[in-house]
Design brief:
Number of strands: 8
Length: 222
């Protein structure tokens, strides 16, 4: 009889202990959830504060950046590339999947929009080729990797693929250099829902011979 009483007491104490343990676990979970929520609301994401030490107004700077970005974007939207097998009989249809061909007119125009450093990054990937005599091209031509401009179209401050919203954020400006961020987004139109793409790319302009040129536009920062 005594053994049964002790067994009941032991089971009772165990159940009380188990109840206390569960209660403490629930309390700690709620406390942690409250702390997380409080930290988020009291420390929202840091906003960019535009630092302007130039002689230009913020509106003038914004117009310069938007103009230069728009020009470069339009250039790539209308760029003409050639199949290497149609330019030189030394290459086959299979080579069309390896290379693109661009002419010197493309390169010269591109160079007017970007700095030497940006231009050199693409120039270093090119090799001049000799077109067949019956190919009507008015300038020298070069071959490059098929993918050499893929990041420009998809992963840059002028991205055209998988994007339907563009937001310009100014970061800093002097009379010689402008630093901005282009927020490239893909969001459902007319819907209040999460965007499937929300990327930011560095967009830097530098003054070269009294003209603003793009010095960076493919660096992803988020």
């Amino acid at each position: 009889m005594l053994k049964r009483e002790w067994k009941k007491i032991t089971i009772g104490l165990f159940l009380v202990f188990l109840f206390i343990l569960v209660a403490l676990t629930i309390f700690n979970f709620q406390k942690e959830s409250e702390d997380i929520f409080e930290d988020y609301t009291n420390n929202p994401p840091e906003e960019i504060v535009f630092q302007n030490s130039s002689d230009m107004t913020e509106q003038e700077i914004r117009e310069i950046v938007e103009e230069k970005r728009s020009i470069l974007k339009n250039f790539f939207e209308n760029a003409q590339y050639y199949n290497i097998s149609e330019v030189s009989s030394e290459y086959t249809k299979e080579d069309d999947e390896k290379y693109i061909v661009i002419d010197e007119n493309f390169l010269n125009q591109f160079h007017t929009y970007v700095t030497d450093d940006v231009y050199g990054k693409y120039w270093d990937q090119l090799t001049e080729i000799t077109p067949d005599q019956d190919v009507l091209l008015t300038s020298r031509v070069h071959r490059g990797p098929k993918t050499m401009f893929d990041s420009v179209y998809a992963e840059s401050a002028i991205a055209m693929l998988n994007a339907n919203e563009e937001i310009l954020l100014l970061e800093s400006a002097t009379n010689e250099r402008i630093v901005a961020i282009e927020n490239i987004r893909l969001c459902p139109e007319g819907e209040d829902s999460i965007c499937s793409r929300n990327d930011k790319y560095r967009l830097i302009l530098e003054k070269v011979d009294n003209d603003w040129k793009i010095a960076e536009f493919t660096e992803k920062i988020s």
